[in-house]
C-alpha cells in the first residue's frame, strides 16, 4: 500500500500544534474551508472543502498533546478509509510526524494529495509560527 509521510519541526509547543491539528477553528486556518467536530475518540468531524466536497472524519486517536488521527469517509473514493494523523513530540518546539495511510493503490489522486499535504503542512507551520493566514482559495498557490 502507498502511504504519505512528512516529518518537520514547528517552532511552537506540542500543545499549540495539537490544537492546530485537532480544533476546527484552527483546521480552517490551514486545511479546510470550514470544519466542525470535537477532538475525542469516536467523534465525527465535518470537513468542508467546498459544495461538492463535504467529507467526514471519525477520530480514531486523540492523546493530547501527542497524537491525533482520524479515519476519512464520505470523500473521494481513494480517500475513503484512509487515516490522517499526527504524532507530536518536543517541549518548546514540536517535531511533527504526519501520515496519511491506507491508500489502496498509487494513483494520480495519491500523488496530488502528497503534494497538497506538503503545501498545507507548510501553511500550518507558518500559521503557528508567524500567525499568517491564507485564504482557502489561494492555499495551493503560496
What are its keywords?
Alpha-D-Glucose-1,6-Bisphosphate, Chain A, domain 4, alpha+beta, 34% strand
Walkthrough of the structure:
- The longest helix is centred in the last third of the chain and has 23 residues.
- The termini are far apart.
- Helix 1 packs across helix 2.
- The chain is built from three helices and seven strands; from the N terminus they run E-H-H-E-E-E-E-E-E-H.
- The protein has one domain: START domain (Alpha-D-Glucose-1,6-Bisphosphate, Chain A, domain 4).
- The mean pLDDT is 97.
- The chain has 142 residues and is α+β, with helices and mostly antiparallel strands.
- Strands 1-7-6-5-4-3-2 form a seven-stranded antiparallel beta sheet.
Mean pLDDT across all amino acids: 97
CATH topology: Alpha-D-Glucose-1,6-Bisphosphate, Chain A, domain 4
Q: Identify low-pLDDT runs.
A: none
The largest beta-sheet arranges its strands as 1-7-6-5-4-3-2
What helical percentage do the residues reach?
25-40%
Proportion of residues in extended strands: 25-35%
Structural class: alpha+beta
Name of the CATH superfamily? START domain
Give the count of structural domains.
1
Largest sheet: 7 strands, antiparallel
Q: What's the β-strand tally?
A: 7
Quaternary structure: single chain
By CATH reckoning, the class would read Alpha Beta
Outline:
This protein is an alpha+beta fold and 142 residues long.
Amino acid at each position: 500500500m502507498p502511504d504519505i509521510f512528512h516529518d518537520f519541526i514547528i517552532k511552537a509547543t506540542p500543545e499549540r500544534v495539537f490544537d492546530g491539528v485537532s480544533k476546527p477553528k484552527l483546521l480552517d486556518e490551514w486545511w479546510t474551508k470550514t470544519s466542525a467536530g470535537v477532538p475525542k475518540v469516536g467523534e465525527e468531524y465535518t470537513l468542508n472543502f467546498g459544495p461538492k466536497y463535504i467529507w467526514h472524519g471519525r477520530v480514531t486517536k486523540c492523546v493530547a498533546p501527542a497524537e491525533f488521527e482520524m479515519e476519512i469517509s464520505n470523500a473521494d473514493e481513494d480517500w475513503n478509509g484512509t487515516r490522517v494523523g499526527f504524532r507530536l513530540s518536543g517541549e518548546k518546539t514540536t517535531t511533527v510526524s504526519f501520515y496519511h495511510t491506507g491508500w489502496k493503490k498509487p494513483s494520480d489522486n495519491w500523488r496530488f494529495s502528497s503534494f497538497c499535504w506538503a503545501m498545507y503542512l507548510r501553511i500550518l507551520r507558518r500559521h503557528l509560527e508567524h500567525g499568517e493566514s491564507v485564504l482557502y482559495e489561494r492555499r495551493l498557490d503560496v
